[in-house]
Amino acid sequence: MDFDLTEEQRLLKESVDGLLENSYDFDSRKKYAKENGGWSKTVWSKLAEQGLLGLPFSEEDGGFGAGAVETMIVMEALGRALVLEPYLATVVLCGGFLRRGGSAAQKAAHIPGIIDGSKTFAFAQLEKNSRYDLADVATTAKKKGDGWIIDGEKFVVLNGETADTFIVTARTKGGQRDRNGVGVFLVPANAKGVSKKGYPTQDGLHAADVTFTGVEVGADAAIGDPENALPLIEQVVDDARIALCAEAVGAMDESLKTTGEYIKTRKQFGVPIGSFQVLQHRAADMFVALEQARSMAMFATMASDFDKADERANAVAAAKVQIGKSGKFVGQQAIQLHGGIGMTMEAKIGHYFKRLTMIENTFGDADYHLARVSDGPGLV
Predict the structure, then answer these.
(1) Quick check: is 1 in a domain?
(2) Which of 85, 238, 273, 351 is 20 to 30 Å from the Cα of 92, by its Cα?
(3) What is the CATH number of the domain that holds 24?
């Protein structure tokens, strides 16, 4: 595999890095977090103006036809800057459903709004007892004429507080954990019967618990086959896991950089603590963990194009295991090397560790994915 970036990809990296360096320092992030929904509409508009919201969409749909590598570049930059804006929820997850399973009419109705920044989306999937099982769906979608009636509850819906549209997993037939009978539906956030309770998460993002009570949607709300959408869900969630791996690499990279700068300036016994050999060894171990994570994130990115779903899933699971382990190690060491200041809200290093912890627990932690890897081919 060729892991070298093309000239266009290098220009993209320079562009997104430059944008965030100029508009997303730690103090600015604090201000953005106080805005409605916990993120900046101004920054979101800048991402749209630079074409970043349209990257993965085809040129026919108004996008740039970029691939997983370009998404990796953007997500790593977002992780490095600790960005709060709903790129994962809107572009990667919900945009992924539209790209991979949406009809021509659905794409025409929703993708332009994502690209120009006028609409944001949220993926409503997690339920009270489902944990990491994508097939565990108790929310129901029952036929009513040509349309559907959706009932159920979803929890920790990222960007659910301010999203314009939800993409909801709901069961159309079968038992709660059957692989068949799961559909995916577009539901306007202002539809009658939709109620939500928003709150900040530990990493500074915002989520919502959403209740659907007798919500009526039309036949055109279903994305793909309403009785067999689980393969689509698994593919899009794997895309999200790959993006999260890249974001984690960015967060780890900045954590190591910040820690390196700190130990070069923090003095003890009259000398910088970075001169102590034992701390140099810790920093070296952090670097090794980061590079292991980077390699696996790049491998997972390449695996997104694998033809066989089980091979793709196995590669993504392996990457998520390494990302989880590296993220925990780098985060813990960064806090330790910062000492007491690393535990305060004023120091940004703790916020990076919080984000890495949340990434670890999104769509499966290291233990969950280690079990998937051990199952081998056919794990999906």
Answers:
(1) no
(2) 351
(3) 1.10.540.10
